[in-house]
Amino acid sequence: MKKVYNIAVDGPAGAGKSTIARSVAEKLNFVYVDTGAMYRAMALHFLRNGIPAADEAAISKSAEEVDVTISYENGMQQVILNGENVSGLIRRPEVSSMASAVSIYMPVRRKLVELQKNLASKENVIMDGRDIGTCVLPHADLKIYLTASSQVRAKRRYEELTAKGEECSLKNIESDIIERDYRDMNREHSPLKQAEDAVLVDTSAMTIPQVVDRILQLFYERNMEGGSPWK
Predict the structure, then answer these.
(1) Which residues form the Cytidylate kinase domain (predicted)?
(2) Cα–Cα distance between 156 and 226 in angstroms, integer?
(3) Under a CB-based contact definition with an 8 Å cutoff, are residues 220 and 136 in contact?
(4) Quick one: DSSP state of residue 123?
(5) Residues 222, 142: contact at Cβ < 8 Å?
(6) Are 161 and 170 in contact (CB under 8 A)?
(7) 141-160: pLDDT as tens digits
(8) In 3-state terms, what secondary structure has residue 76?
C-alpha cells in the first residue's frame, strides 16, 4: 500500500497558517485542508440562522444539518456550505469570532474532525488548525507549531483587511486576537497547545518564503530517506 504523508500545522489566529500551509502544499503537491475555513463555514451557517454562540443546544442541533466540503477549481480552494460556495464570505471578523466561539462544542468538532481524518487517511495532506497535531492527526509525519507576537499578527490582519478596502482598527484587531488566543487555549475540548513532538516556528521576523523553506527542510529531513517518493 502506498505511503500517505500528513503534515500538521497548528498555531494561534493570524500566525499565517493558511498562507504557509497552502504554499507548502503547492511545493509538495499535497492536498491543503484549511480546517479553519471549515469551522468558519459552520459559523456562517449559525450566523445566517440567527443562532447565538452561547446557545449550545441550538448550535449542536443545527450542526447536524450542515454539510461542509472542500473542492479545488483551477488550483484554488473552494469551501462549500450546503451546496453553496462561501469562500468569499467566511473571512469576515464576525465569522472568525463566531467560529472560535462555537468550536468548543463537541457536536461541531466531532462532525468536522471525522471529515478531516477521513481525507487524511486517503491523501497526502497538509492540514492547519488549532488541534491538528494533538487531536486530528496525532500520528502526522511532521508537526509544526506556527506562531508570532500578537502585535505582528494584528498588523498583518490589519493590512490584509485595509487592502480590501475594509475599515478597521489595529487596536481592536489586536484585542480580538488576544481574546481569541485565551479562548482557544483555555477551552474544555481540544485546547490550542503545542504538541510535544511539534517543531516551534516563530514567524515574527520571517518572510513567507523563509517559513515555507523551513517546513520543507524539516519534512525532507524526516521523511525523504532513500529519495523523494514523487520522483
Answers:
(1) 7-219
(2) 40
(3) no
(4) S
(5) yes
(6) no
(7) 999 999 999 999 999 889 98
(8) strand
* Rounded-to-integer distance, Cα 154 and Cα 159, Å: 9
Of the candidates 89, 98, 96, 116, the one whose C-alpha atom is nearest the C-alpha of residue 35 is 116
Domain ranges for the chain: 6-220
Tell me, what amino acid is at 87? S
Question: How many CB atoms lie under 10 A from the CB of residue 76?
Answer: 9
Please tell me whether the overall predicted TM-score, pTM, comes out greater than 0.90 for this model: no
| Neighbouring residues of 59: CB distance < 8 A, sequence distance ≥ 6 | 46, 51, 53, 102, 105, 107, 108
Among the residue ranges 39-53, 92-106, 203-217, the one predicted with the least confidence is 92-106
Which parts are annotated binding residues?
A: 11-19
Q: Whose CA is closest to 120, among 35, 197, 51?
A: 35
Fold of 6-220: Rossmann fold (3.40.50)
Binding-site residue ranges for ATP? 11-19
Q: Using the 8-state DSSP alphabet, how is residue 31 labeled?
A: E
pLDDT band, residue 6 (cuts 50/70/90) = very high
Start-to-end Cα distance in the chain: 17
Q: In angstroms, rounded to a whole number, what is the distance separating the alpha carbons of residues 211 and 24?
A: 9
**Residue 72, number of CB atoms within 10 A of its CB:** 10
DSSP 140-159: -SEEEEEE--HHHHHHHHHH
Residue 35 burial (C-beta neighbours within 10 Å; 0-12, 13-18, 19+): buried
Alpha helices (H) along 133-199: 150-163, 170-186
